[in-house]
Amino acid sequence: MKTNTKKYLTKGGDKFFLKDYNTTYDGHLDKEAGKEELERVKEELKDYQEALYASDSHSLLIIFQAMDAAGKDSAIEHVMSGLNPQGCQVYSFKTPNSEEYNHDFLWRHYKALPERGKIGIHNRSHYENVLVCKVHPEYVLSENIPGYDDVKKIDKKFWKARYESIRNFENHLTANGTVVLKFFLHVSKDEQKQRFLDRIEEPSKNWKFSAGDLKERALWKDYMAAYEDAIRETSTETAPWYVIPADKKWYARLAISQIIEETLESLNLKYPVLPKEEADQLETIKQQLLSEK
């Protein structure tokens, strides 16, 4: 049961608008059937992960960006739960510390890249520097960039240069074997409200909510504009953005898993073939083992 994953792929550009993407879309699928399909895909991902590690030619960087309560954490948990944890690296990026502020904005993200043969998952990413920082440009001042000592100086030229830095960064990664998948979990404002209420009403979920979440929610339009700009500027042929309908968590997980599956399948990963001399040696060792009493 395949969903139309191309539906979520965006080429960016001036014609991209988030309003054109439905947050409640579920592929006209039944929830239980969708969960069964997710389990099937997870089994396939195990095999692809092993082939990725054995081939040692590529790495996979999966980026999750979204508003609060869109389901990033649960998507990572459910989609990746069947993988070998030794081959995965998950990073959740918070506010930069003093050491990170003393480097360029990409430094800490470059340090967290997956090595060849592995899957890296970034829960929030270098895109925070053109999302939350664009909504709150005063945060940029903490980077102590020469020439930018006042919020008024952080203009369109600044953001244009930052988008270009991100494109160049991702082009460099893809040219060197890192496949970049970028997911924006597109949740509606109404659904976020309900999930916030759930977190408040259920004691076991209270820890997930903070007063700061409500302050950021009040800036919803600013964030949507920042996401539109970021996706328009950085969705490229080699590092595309996928806008995933996220009001129904089960469907978001399914769509994400199938996109990852299709991406790994497209790499046509091969297990290494031993040279004849080594293969012959293995056969000799096999016979020795079989001859043991």
From TrEMBL:
Keywords: Kinase, Transferase. Residues 29-267 form the Polyphosphate kinase-2-related domain. The keyword Kinase applies. GO terms for biological process: polyphosphate metabolic process. GO terms for molecular function: polyphosphate kinase activity. The keyword Kinase applies. Belongs to the polyphosphate kinase 2 (PPK2) family. Class I subfamily. This is Polyphosphate kinase 2 family protein.
